Amino acid sequence: RIRSADPMRAQLSVPQPVVCAINGDAIGLGASVALFCDIVYMAEEARLGDPHVKAGLVAGDGGAILWPLLLGPHRGKEFLFTGDLMTAADAHRLGLVNHVVPRDEVRAAAGAMAKRLAAGPRSVIQFDKRLANADLLDRVNRLLDASLAMEAISLGGADHAEAVAAFLEKRE
Q1: Which of 13, 80, 141, 168 is deepest in the core (most CB within 10 A)?
Q2: Environment class of residue 170 by beta-carbon count within 10 Å: exposed (0-12), middle (13-18) or buried (19+)?
Q3: pTM (2 d.p.)
């Protein structure tokens, strides 16, 4: 659990493109970190999702901002409200990731893209990134602190206590 919005703001403030290689499941905070990246490669058998709700918690790490922004409000809220995981194929079809490749190729493919971008016109790419991320950064600046606060509140709530009890008792 993160207690500050600083890591997400720091990730978004990196001027160079950030290329992500997901070679296993990216869940909760892992999904948020991946989806805050600029270009995302994902292994074919990996899954993506934000199951905070299943633990009785608010998705305070950026998920409540990212999922509706990237998927549209209705579809994004469905994933937030259910905590369902999606396959790499579905993540690609829905536009969350750029490329799906075999697991043994994901790092090399992401590395090749990073090298390609590094060889490109640096200032143009950085300006394009800044402009493309302006709305996301605005949303983060407006909502992430409140999102983290709501997650902290939900951590002490009855829903989270019930989720923990259900987990320990091996029941839904």
Answers
A1: 80
A2: exposed
A3: 0.90
